[in-house]
Amino acid sequence: MEPVFKEIKDAYLPEAFQWEMIPFGSGLINSTWKVQSADTSEQYILQKINTTIFKQPEKIDQNLQQTGKYLAQKEPEYHFVQPLPTKEGLTLFVSKTGTFRLQPFVKNTYTVDVVPNTSIAFEAARQFGLFNRVLHGFDVNLLQITLPDFHNLSLRYNQFQQALVRATKSRIDVCRKEIRTLIQNEPIVATYRRIVLDKNMPLRVMHHDTKISNVLFNPAGKGVCVIDLDTIMPGYFISDVGDMCRTYLCALDENDTRLQQVEVREAYFTALAKGYLSAMKNLLTEREKGLFTYSGQFMIYMQALRFLTDHLLGNPYYPVNHPLHNLERTQNQLKLLKSYQQKESHFQMIVEDILTEEKIG
Fold this sequence. Notes:
With 361 residues, this protein is an alpha+beta fold. The chain has helices at residues 3-12, 57-74, 118-134, 153-166, 169-173, 176-184, 187-197, 237-248, 266-280, 286-290, 294-312, 325-356, and strands spanning 19-23, 31-37, 43-49, 93-95, 98-104, 204-206, 215-217, 223-226, 233-235. The strands form 3 sheets. Strands 1-2-3-5-4 form a 5-stranded antiparallel β-sheet, covered by helices on one side. The N and C termini lie far apart (49 Å). The relative contact order is 0.12.
């Protein structure tokens, strides 16, 4: 056993505990292992927090402690995966090699990396809606900002404009069409600015990373809980709904270059909307309900901006497999945006029908 892992074991577990560690999951940010006893009767998840991304991991820890305490008091039946304390009572273990946390492993559950059907889309959206609902009464001012400006579309658009000034002519020449499309869609940014200025728009406890792999399912395919809670922060509901729209509605992911097949699927939008609104229908304001379909535009467009900004600057942020990788990702997201916009008025009708249903699901 490597010295650092022995150090972690000694901090958390009895001396007699014999464990094995197995790399676990598909996350790209933190390093994750499944830790279990020889007979697998005891199982945990160990994570090394990526402090290059999360520069102040103690803020994540504070958020989890605050929300966990609230849920234990107000929503004790809700399944909230919280870090376990060390023998000294600390929920972060800091060593010379990094910052770690140990969490209980939720047995008899699984995750998926791609949305396989509308039932799973419904269940995942319902779980994220439930997460928003059970924390509806929590004071968002108690939350720490773990990733500043993470979903700040105004900032992302400004960064895009700055990149246009800084980029080389050769980089600009190869993506003039994409630049033009992003500029033509600037009204999406204008809507976001109005949202931020609207004092009646609720700030809520948002997950901010609602991809399908952040939901645990039981063997029957029912959602159990959401995981990967590092980005719990104050935000607008469009963040969580928008990220689901961006990642659930197309059969292909953002790296796929088969643009003719990049299309949003109506049945998956219906499932997503029904799932989320089954939990949040009675808590959303009328203004929020009117922005439900905008959420998809908001997130797809912002990701396209981020990819093209990275391409213009020489790919400093997103890992790439070749020099035009971020441009290809941009083209993928712009095709997805176009497909979404073509169906948005119909999606709005779907949402309105769901909102008038007495029972959803």
